[in-house]
Amino acid sequence: MTTFADKTFTPPELIRNFCVIAHIDHGKSTLADRMLQLTGVLTDRNYRAQYLDRMDIERERGITIKAQNVRLPWQVNGVDHVLHLIDTPGHVDFTYEVSRALEACEGAVLLVDAAQGIEAQTLANLYLALEKDLRIIPVLNKIDLPAAEPDRYAAELAHILGRQPDDVLRVSAKTGQGVRELLDVVVAQVPAPVGDDQAPTRAMIFDSVYDSYRGVVTYIRVIDGRITPRDRIRMMATKATHELLEVGIISPDQKPCDGLGVGEVGYLMTGVKDVRQSRVGDTVTSERKGATEALPGYRTPKPMVFAGLYPMDGSDYPELRDALDKLRLNDAALTYEPETSAALGFGFRCGFLGLLHLEITRDRLEREFGLDLISTAPNVVYRVVRDDTTEQTVTNPADWPDGGVAEVYEPVVRCTVIAPSEFVGTIMELCQGRRGTLLGMDYLSESRVEMRYTLPMAEIMFDFFDALKSRTRGYASLDYEEAGEQASDLVKVDILLQGEPVDAFSAIVHRDAAYGYGTSMATKLRELIPRQQFEVPIQAAIGSRIIARETIRAIRKDVLAKCYGGDITRKRKLLEKQKEGKKRMKTIGRVEVPQEAFVAALSTNDPAQPANKRS
Amino acid sequence: MAANHQWESGRDHVVQSATWAPSRLPTFGCWDTEHVAAALPLGAPAPSDGALPAAALRELRRAPFGVYVHVPFCATRCGYCDFNTYTPGELATSPSTWLDAVRRELDLAAQVLGEPVPADTVFVGGGTPSLLGAAGLAAVLDAVRGSLGLAPGAEVTTEANPESTSPEFFAGIAAAGYTRVSLGMQSAAPHVLAVLDRVHTPGRPVAAAAQARAAGIGQVSLDLIYGTPGETSDDLAASLDAVLTAGVDHVSAYALVVEAGTALARRVARGELPGPDDDVLAERYEQIDTALSAAGLQWYEVSNWATSAESRCRHNVGYWADGNWWGAGPGAHSHVGGVRWWNVKHPARYAAALQAGRSPAAGREILNPEEQHTERVMLGVRVAEGLPLVALDSPSRAAADRAVSDGLLIAVPGDRLVLTRRGRLLADAVVRNLLAP
Questions:
Q1: Cα nearest neighbour of A535 on chain B
Q2: Which chain A residue lies closest to B69 (C-alpha atoms)?
Q3: Is A565 within 8 Å of B327 when comparing Cβ atoms?
């Protein structure tokens, strides 16, 4: 349907740009759906639940990975306003994307479940929004639930924001109760965008999505000047120039328009096929008489977590490469290069923004491309200073120098944990065990506490979130952000089978944890690797020093007692089957290891689980 | 998979009298109605006239020729047995119908092979061949003589259950032409026999062996099952003492295998009995090999020991030496010149096919050169003569060298590879490494 909002170049004073900051499952998508319906953008007939979450994975997991945004008409006191609802990615790995989405707004709805209260990631994103001076509209959702405690959580939000409990709106996105009022408050409280219509064009890219039919769709917010179709544009960071094929708005689907003015949000298409040519955070300007100064804040995404991805079936390697090539079109942060492992065969060393990014990527590769994958334990990026003062960046334990290491620096994160206050002791114990340093602690209310820690990033990669959840009966929430690096006493632990290192199991760990890693890996492998014709020592070693040892006893009997006339065919067929099975074995030295043993050894510490379960 | 197994014991079962005639079998009163015989392989269809490719027939004279006859009758079914055998309550076919069908099959064999091929060896297995009685076994051998013929100096073996034998029985089969008897002993320990569902009068197997020799049977074998749940090293030592006291010239010893679908497998699955442990089985095997070697019985195949080359079972040696044989009877397997086939398992279907003038074969396979090579390595490595080095290509020889340095094989004069004792216990792994280096 058409509305007055379909016409662009709306005067900035009638525009309100806002986003919704919410924790997963606190009802952001439902609220967005309700707003679309109330503003008439989405009729009941074509209403599709959680319209804004387009990807299956997002819907299944109840999380938003990629931002979408929509232009809404809303009349207050007889005056037509245009609202741009900018949907933000909800996860910790996408902090940079979140920050760009926030940059496109003047206000933010802080949406909190009235039965659960604020969660750590919401708080982190709230702090980001406050840093950018966004107008915060605190809202409690799900007030229709029997378990809702709106008074308690209104007090909590008021305490965090330094406002009055009365300032906290109460809605039910599900029933629609209070949503009209919320839209009115957005118009009343969120400042209108400010920009110079006459200045050289500057628009910020806050999202960039690859569409297999249309190429890359780039979402922008115009800061100064205007953008019209058939302009030639320049990306100021990548310096690429493009012809504009289409400029449009989303309401709720893509609608081409005459152009976008100051404060307006929409999309543009240039026909490029790779999101790397249209990067989030970059500034779009016109090719001729363009701006000379880019908007601040652009950053090239930097992979923080690396892992090897291998096809379970070696012959799927070309399929994996093609699949990564395709994902890359839509994921400017994904990096990968071919890697060979003696244990796992041919695969790719992949770089990710974080654990969720890893897990989502792996999930999509398996689901959308039908691949069966095995992932090595992920590791962070280390800066190694050698005795001769040269420096080396290590993203793969295989590249760890054999000797002459003067100093090692590892990335650290600032971690925020919110939990009921009865768990303070448990959480402190956990964080200290992971080499954490307590930065501070605040009571959000009488019964809920926010704790801030610095932790080595590597320490939160394995089972940290699981441990946190299980020790707090599921109540704790976690958020982290990068916080530089620190020098640490780190070593590489190799796992050796019969004296041969197994590359897939090498890990960089703190010296104090080396023995624990070595012992647990050796014990696990002893259980997983079938007995061989000879005794197989499993050792964990730092350099040439053995720190743990287990032994797989030699098998003593592997013979069928009877082999007479009628047994021969059956036995030969069994042998032929075993020969096939042997092809699927990986041989380390002379030790035959079934693929399943690697999978089991690597998946027990499934690194991506914390991110996966985060909710 | 019963037929040709020649597991020389384990199929003959307890009966109350040594003089059961085939015609009396159906009158048995206590039957096990379970039917667990292991499945036949999948193969190509076999021609209904039983014809063999000319290429296979040309191989016929290259090696000794054997005849196997499968007797599918048992008085009761033992809990560990998955052979193709039937208790009277399970079976509509009478022993006389069976014997008639066997005669027809042997006639078919003579016709298919195209010329008289006298048997160098005959082996009557089961089931419980001794249930046929001396007269029944004589009739079986007559059927061979009357069809394919019997070569001069042929080895003629029957399996027998000690409890169903007597001096008269042995005298009867000796007179009929049997030269060798294989007695199922399993163990001397009553509690071990009980787990196996076997009941012996103490000392009966040893006495039977003496009676067989006294009757003029030149070769007498006893066989043992080891690793039965509850069997101790001392129990096995007592069994070995009994075997040696009997003064036999041949011993077979088999690790107990819990075959899927048997009553024993169900008891193990329910936790009533512990499953055999491979490490314990290995120790027991070493105990057996040590005791028998010390008493002058040398291994000549992984599970077989004999006092001399002449005491070996020539019929079984044929299985490992790529020999040819015709297996007659329900479920029996045959091999001629790279063609293997197997009969339908059920005695009624078996008899019906032959009555209708058709081959009873259920399926067959014509081995390609690679499959023949696989079988030669797989079987050749199991015997004390060893595997000729010329049978191996160079990657396999490299694998053989590793097995030698691992102490699993030794190279003996004449360029042959022979398993060490440790190697015998790991023979299947050695074969895998030789074939898929």
A1: B406
A2: A565
A3: yes
Nearest to B178 by CA among B241, B222, B133, B223: B133
Torsion A316-A320-A326-A330 (CA) sign: positive
Summarised one tens digit per residue, pLDDT across range B223-237 is: 999 999 999 999 999
Out of A557, A564, A566, whose CB is closest to B425? A557
Which is more confidently placed, B140 or B163?
Answer: B140
Instruction: Please state, in angstroms and as integers, the Cα–Cα distance from residue A389 to each residue in A399, A435, A486, B188, B408, following that order.
Output: 17, 27, 17, 78, 53
Rounded alpha-carbon distances, angstroms, from residue A16 to A191, A260, A265: 7, 15, 10
Residue B37 has pLDDT above 50, yes or no: no
Decide if B396 is inside a domain.
yes
Residue B238 identity? A
Nearest CA in chain A to B408: A533
Q: Which of A557, A559, A569 sits opposite B340 (nearest CB)?
A: A569
SS3 per-residue string spanning B345-374: CCHHHHHHHHHCCCCCEEEEEECCHHHHHH
Chain A: residues touching B (Cβ < 8 Å): 533-534, 555-573, 575-576, 578-579, 582-583, 590
Provide the 8-state DSSP code for A239: -
Q: How confident is the model at residue B2 (pLDDT cuts 50, 70, 90)?
A: very low
| Partners of residue A571 in chain B, C-beta under 8 Å | 378
For helices B394-405 and B427-435, angle between their N-to-C axes, nearest 10 degrees:
150
Domain-located, residue B408: yes
Listed residues B319, B350, B384: the one ending a domain: B319
Do residues B372 and B315 share a domain? no
Q: A583-587, B132-136, B201-205: which range is least confident on average?
A: A583-587
Q: What's the gap in Å between the CA of B153 and the closest CA on chain A?
A: 22
CATH number of the domain at B223, please. 3.20.20.70
Q: Sorting pLDDT into bands at 50, 70 and 90, what band is A46?
A: low
Is B269 domain-assigned?
yes
Q: Between chain A and chain B, how many beta carbons pairs sit less than 8 Å apart? A: 121
**Residue of A535, A557, A568 to mutate, interface with B, max B Cβ within 10 Å:** A557
Q: CA-to-CA distance for A40 and A35, rounded, in angstroms?
A: 8
Binary contact (A565, B5; C-beta < 8 A): yes
Residue B102 structural domain: 54-319
CB-nearest partner of A555 from B7, B340, B426: B426
Residues β-bridged to residue A500: A497
Q: What is each CA distance from B339 to A349, A370, B114, B382, in whole angstroms?
A: 52, 43, 16, 21
Helical residues (DSSP H) of A381-492, grouped into ranges: 424-433, 464-471
- Tell me: do B286 and B213 sit in the same domain: yes
Mutate to test the interface with A, among B182, B315, B333 (most CBs of A within 10 A): B333
- Domain end (from B295, B319, B343): B319
Terminal-to-terminal C-alpha distance of chain B: 30
> Does residue A165 contact residue A151 with C-beta atoms inside 8 Å?
yes
Q: Closest to A561 (Cβ–Cβ): which among B1, B255, B431? A: B255
Contact status, residue A413 vs residue A482, Cβ threshold 8 Å: yes
**Cβ-based neighbours of A461, under 8 Å, separated by 6 or more:** A305, A355, A378, A379, A380, A607, A610
ipTM score for this prediction: 0.89
Q: B4 and A573 in contact by Cβ < 8 A?
A: no
Residue of B nearest to A583 (CA): B436
Q: Tell me the pairing of strands A107-113 and A202-211.
A: unpaired
Q: What's the domain count of chain B? A: 2
For residue A560, the chain B residues in CB contact (below 8 A) are: 257, 428
Answer yes or no: do B389 and B258 share one domain. Answer: no
Q: Which residues lie closer than 8 Å to A612 by C-beta, 6 or more apart?
A: A61, A356, A359
Distance from B4 to chain A by nearest Cα, in Å?
5
* Cβ pair A93, A125 in contact under 8 A: no
